[in-house]
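Quick one:
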Amino acid sequence: MKPSLQVRLSQHLALTPQLQQSIRLLQLSTLELHQEVGQMLDQNPFLDLEEDAASPFETPLDRRLADDRASSRDKGDDREAEEGGAGDEAALAEVSAGDFGTTAHEDWENGTEGDDFDGIGETPSARAAGASAAAGEEEGDPQDRRAAGTSLQDHLRAQTVGMRLAPEDRLALEALIESLDADGYLADPLDEIAARLSELLGQADAQAREALDERLRCALRWLHNLEPTGVGARSLSECLVLQLRERHAKSPERRLAIAICEKHLEHLARRDLRRLAVLTGGSEEQLRAAQAMITACEPKPGRPFADVEGQVVVPDVLVQRTRGGLKTVLNPDVMPRLRVNDLYARALRGQRGSAPDLSARLQEARWFVRNIQQRFDTILRVSQAIVERQKSFFTHGAIAMKPLVLREIAEELSLHESTISRVTTAKYMSTPMGTYELKYFFGSSLHTETGGNASSTAVRALIRQLVDAEDRSRPLSDSRLSAMLEEQGIQVARRTVAKYRELLRIEPAPMRRAQA
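Output:
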């Protein structure tokens, strides 16, 4: 073989550090972005927050970051005294999901929903917004206000302060409190807790172990007497029984309710009152009274003390109604107000070439500011395209949602589908209809008899309407729902109806049946 020289012309994408940072920032949620900004402010001296206190765009997050940064600088001064280029969006559009691993959802290729893709469950709905409004009108439960700043364990410990307990008994009660899960149930069996305590106390003999078991059983009774009622239960049945005994006086109905909770909860879940009447001997009136007592109980006594702060959704985009239609703007409260410190930059230019590490830091700060701006510009462009495609949703609700896949938005904006997937994941839009994840507006299409397509989101909304309007004595089965949809020209298989019903958290027909 004879060696030769050849000249080839080809194109390839170079994943520069700047482009890598741009992609990484794009897929971060708002909370993750704020954490990233805080870390960068601590690490890079050329990066700073804009100090315009009179600006309405200054957010509590900005002030907190500024205070933390000032505090860090003060601590650094004390220790010393004691001791002595812009991202290229066209290049970003060509990056595929494989270049940086998979995205949060593996379904970006066609934009169809998975089990958690449709916005049901993970995005606040209109019902949640209504609940928040109702909570704002009333002062709320004092227990809810108390729980907002304390945990369930701390709340229980506060109640034990006035109890005159021996050190061993207090230790046993503390062990039970620490073993509670987030719902207020006892997560571990008593024998396992006793084994851990005996190992901690060095009591391996049988007599000491028996005494410890007795102390734990006694401590469990004390725990059951604390608020909220039902805490420390080892099962749903025990939790309900504790609340029934605490909240209701002795009566045939309470006795019947306790019997149902102890032995026949599965029949109550199916609302099979006829079977319950046979098993318990109670009359229909007594069974309905017992059912009302049970449904008024709290199945998760620790729920008011759950940490919901991390579940609060802050929208990235705001959709507002105007005289000209719908206006889509970025939420100024989530936009970090960053700038490059001009004083440090000018000082570095005066010593050009003398500090290559500082020059790299300066370039890193400029890249970061530009990439942050590009991130929000891309989110705004995608959101505007979504609003334009789904105008009917903002007028008629989810039932008017149109089929939409990621590819359509990607082609319209000249971006890659993986970029659209990153933008729409963990980014939220506040609309007059409620707050939704951007992915909520995407849905696969279902065929209709007229040759058109219907959005899977609209079909789910239609299923919800049909179930809400059904006769509770004769609830609609999945097959019947499928037939009713077909009567309206929408071809949906029974299995698909069952899947959508589960996504909507609607019980099967037998469990929705109300006895006449």
